Amino acid sequence: MSYLVLARKWRPQSFEDIAGQGHITRTLQNAIRTQRIAHAYLFTGVRGVGKTTAARVVAKALNCEKGPTPTPCNECSHCLEITNGSSIDVLEIDGASNRGIDEIRQIIEHVRYQPAQCRFKIYIIDEVHQVTKDAFNALLKTLEEPPPSVKFILATTEPHRLPETILSRCQRFDFRRIALREIVQRLDDIAKKEGLKITSGALVLLAREADGSMRDAQSLLEQVLACAAPGSETGGAPAVDESLLQDILGLAQRQLLYDLSAAVFRGDARRCVEIVAEAAAQGRDLGRLSRDLVEHFRNLMVARLSAEKAAATGSLLDLPDQEIADLVAQAQELSLETLLDYFDFMASGDEEVARSAHPRFALETALIRLATLPKTLPVSELLERLEKLAGRFPGTARPVATKPKETAAPVQPATTQSTKFEAGVSGDKDGAWQGFVAFVGREKKFLASHLQPCTVLDLAPGQLKIGVTERHHMSYLVDADNFSALKSLAKQFFSANMSLTLTPLAADAEATVSNSAPAGQGEERSEMVKEALRIFGGSVRTVRKETM
């Protein structure tokens, strides 16, 4: 007898043996038990999750000599023929190679004939999304109203490619990805039956590589079985551990991820580069290592999020209990905000690794960026620190968020200067002018930028004369709103009503402006124009009225 691969040798032969699809097998069994059998079923899901297997079990359940029964005997001639694939009434058709309208016409012609031996004639069409649109249209009437002895079971990995007219004529069952624990349990049973000694950690590694596909997991196990088969000299099966499995399949070592994350948390960028160099020297797939790191930081974030609820952690992380405990232990010292930053930066770095012609350099750069990333503190902790700091100084008030223009720091020099003016002392007018410009800069930075090139011509109690050298500065300062703001700031700084005079110093300048904005500029200005001037710091040069 020719050799059978593990995926075929240990294919489930009953509904109870199908792993991870209890919601589907329970519904199908109840439908058979209550004789509510549909004329067409659609099985969807990713590769290797049991779609074709479930279709064969349904065929046996309907055609078993003791049936229809939800528990086929697997001993009668009909069950054995369906298991071996030799039944003339259960036809498995590949949709990729039988996708044309001619092949569908043959099915339509054969449908009207009664089954040769079995109770039902069953058509299992795999990868049905490959069938052409015209072929689907030809099948519509037969699929909607087949003879009572005919059942259709369609299987596909891409249900979105099927026409709505086909979907509406079938009962749809979505097959889920199989959980890691269920894959580990099935692989352990197969390994024991095959005489292979393999550790639980190696089984977890195999199941993780399968990514929810039982067939992929069994294919990987068969590869390990071929490499670690019992030798003729020893006569015993060698135990396969994680290190041997990593050498056989070239997988990234799980401990490598914990070492890298620990180095990142310590801020040891050099150790990160050394670990990447060791992985590259061992021939590890650095692109896969980068993707595993993204998943690892995600797992750390979830473990930190639900560290206090072990049951919730187990439901969110499809991992063994020991690895969940390791993740919780490593993540408990960091805040959730910090782990979120690590995940974001690592996810961005993984995209760079995938696009880069030199994945090693991109991965090293991403890890160095992570190791030098400052730790993020929660806002509540920052507020608590501020409150403790304020408590050390009894005379200080609790810090509150205020606008910059509400700061009262410049009041002290202004009062001193105004006292000198009231005493009749001209004093240092240049120093007072610089202080005034600095005060305006704190309150209205853009207005101060137009005052800085100007010079003070006269500074006396109640009077301020400013010399303006550039025309565009003059145009901005003589604007009604800006001139009013300048007078208000002067009153606030000098603690007295000030008479402002703007004098142009350029040869082509216009007349002196005193105490008020020029007439005709902004007297009837709309609120929208004023708001635009305030936001952009502009001024109105001229106003023209156009008639239609």
Give the oligomer, counting copies of the same chain as homo and different chains as hetero: single chain
Q: Which structural class do you get from the secondary structure elements?
A: alpha/beta
Low-confidence stretches: 231-235, 395-426, 507-511, 516-524
Compute the number of structural domains: 4
Number of strands: 11
Question: Proportion of β residues?
Answer: 5-15%
CATH architecture identity of the largest domain: 3-Layer(aba) Sandwich
Shape: elongated
CATH superfamily of the largest domain: P-loop containing nucleotide triphosphate hydrolases
Structural Rg: 40 Å
In angstroms, what separates the terminal alpha carbons?
Answer: 100 Å
By DSSP (H or I, 4+ residues per run), the number of helices equals: 25
Average per-residue pLDDT, rounded, comes to 79
**Can you summarize the main beta sheet?**
5 strands, parallel
CATH class of the largest domain: Alpha Beta
Helix content: 40-55%
Main sheet strand line-up: 2-3-4-1-5
| CATH fold annotation of the largest domain | Rossmann fold
